[in-house]
Amino acid sequence: MSVKRVAILGSTGSIGMNTLEVIRAHPERFKVVALTAAQKIERLAEQCAEFKPAIAVVADEAGAVRLRQMLQEKNLSTQVLFGAEALISAVVDSGCDTVMAAIVGAAGLAPTLAAARAGKRVLLANKEALVMSGDLFMQAMLAGGGELLPIDSEHNAIFQCLPNGFTNHPQGQHGVEELWLTASGGPFRDLALADLASITPEQACAHPNWVMGRKISVDSATMMNKGLEVIEAFWLFGLPLEKIKVLIHPQSVVHSMVRYRDGSVLAQMGQPDMRTPIAYGLAYPERINAGVAPLDLTQLAMLSFTEPDTKQFPCLALAFSAAAAGGTAPTILNAANEIAVAAFLDMGLPYLQISQVVEQVLNQIDSAPATSIEQILAVDTAARLAAQNYIRDLRH
Ligand SMILES: NC(=O)C1=CN([C@@H]2O[C@H](COP(=O)(O)OP(=O)(O)OC[C@H]3O[C@@H](n4cnc5c(N)ncnc54)[C@H](OP(=O)(O)O)[C@@H]3O)[C@@H](O)[C@H]2O)C=CC1
Ligand SMILES: CC(=O)[C@@H](O)[C@H](O)COP(=O)(O)O
Ligand SMILES: [Mn+2]
């Protein structure tokens, strides 16, 4: 068994720490060669002390100075770099063969793309990168000759329910009729929109089943997360949009399903614990112990499935329409959502205005065919600016 050399983009976050937990249990299989963070320097220093990567990356020079000092005190020889370009070094200069892409948001696009181009095994948690750049990212993956394994729990479930290697095949191959993405419905599943006017960030981040970072937790509450996941599934699995369905499944035990032509429906089930898809991606095609408790079906009262009401979840409706519009519309959707969620979390933007911001920006900026990464990044910047301006106007 050869040891896999792993770079973790976003090692201080929820996915990053779960990845390190799986790796910690299998030192004979995995060697961490690069770790990256933005603000959590102490946590990164502890991770460096334990896993001794060749490279550690932080967001800015001040963070790098602090980290270097901490590592010096521990007599560690990890090279400390900073900034957006250094994230690419963590992928291309660390000698890794596997990259866990777990930076949240658009900041993850450039290093994840670098991993795709360099032919790495890409463990894709960062859905925003694929939503922003869909076709171009998949083309980069293909050209690089690496391997793309979905880590997002629904996509990992679908991957497990499809014949080996089925990603982005033409419609109808292997008898696949539909993909069913399950959604918990988030903390406000049973509330009407009118009841959500004074929702706080703490309430929105209190996901009923999963422990995750703040941005994705808010996306789960608005169901923008599921909208992003529909677009993610479209690019990963190559089925037409109308064959990708969403089902509210409050128990989060069935992580998604594939319906086949012959009447079979294959589901992947498990505890709501990201260590399962992470371990699957790290060891693929082998199966290793993820440290997750076995699922006891006798302890489950029931499993239920219903269709979502898009009036109750306007962000889901906006994502469906951006997905249908195609081109740069998902880039615009994602950028506006990132700005709106950050404003909700940190600047007091009312919860119900998250969808208003996204709708306004989608109406304001025309979508166009996506032609290059440079164009995608320019559209992302323009949509962020439009969202910021709209939020500023709302506040005055
Ligand atoms: N959490 C989950 O269970 C799931 C997450 N995902 C996806 O995985 C990704 C990560 O999610 P999650 O782990 O929850 O997020 P977290 O917020 O917990 O972690 C985000 C990580 O990204 C780093 N980071 C944030 N901003 C930047 C930046 N501008 N430049 C470089 N690094 C940055 C953070 O550094 P620091 O902490 O040091 O500031 C942290 O390491 C998201 O795209 C999410 O949608 C998908 C499915 C499930
Ligand atoms: C764990 C994971 O993959 C998240 O994306 C999760 O799906 C969020 O839960 P929701 O189904 O509430 O969006
Ligand atoms: Mn998911």
TrEMBL record:
Domain DXP reductoisomerase C-terminal: 269-384
Residues reported in the UniProt entry to bind NADPH: T12, G13, S14, I15, A38, N126, E128, G213
Superkingdom of the organism of origin: Bacteria
Annotated Pfam families: DXP_redisom_C (PF08436), DXP_reductoisom (PF02670), DXPR_C (PF13288)
Residues that coordinate or bind Mn(2+): D152, E154, E229
Residues reported in the UniProt entry to bind 1-deoxy-D-xylulose 5-phosphate: K127, S153, E154, S184, H207, S220, N225, K226, E229
Domain 1-deoxy-D-xylulose 5-phosphate reductoisomerase N-terminal: 6-134
Entry keyword annotation includes Transmembrane: no
The enzyme's E.C. designation: 1.1.1.267
Catalytic reaction(s) noted: 2-C-methyl-D-erythritol 4-phosphate + NADP(+) = 1-deoxy-D-xylulose 5-phosphate + NADPH + H(+)
Residue intervals of the 1-deoxy-D-xylulose 5-phosphate reductoisomerase C-terminal domain: 148-237
Biological process per Gene Ontology, one example term: isopentenyl diphosphate biosynthetic process, methylerythritol 4-phosphate pathway involved in terpenoid biosynthetic process
Signal peptide range in chain numbering: none
Pathway noted in the entry: Isoprenoid biosynthesis; isopentenyl diphosphate biosynthesis via DXP pathway; isopentenyl diphosphate from 1-deoxy-D-xylulose 5-phosphate: step 1/6
Keywords, sorted A to Z: Isomerase, Isoprene biosynthesis, Magnesium, Manganese, Metal-binding, NADP, Oxidoreductase
Cofactor needs: Mg(2+); Mn(2+)
GO molecular function list: 1-deoxy-D-xylulose-5-phosphate reductoisomerase activity; isomerase activity; manganese ion binding; NADPH binding
Entry similarity comment: Belongs to the DXR family.
Task of the protein: Catalyzes the NADPH-dependent rearrangement and reduction of 1-deoxy-D-xylulose-5-phosphate (DXP) to 2-C-methyl-D-erythritol 4-phosphate (MEP).
UniProt-recorded name of the protein: 1-deoxy-D-xylulose 5-phosphate reductoisomerase
Organism listed in the record: Polynucleobacter meluiroseus
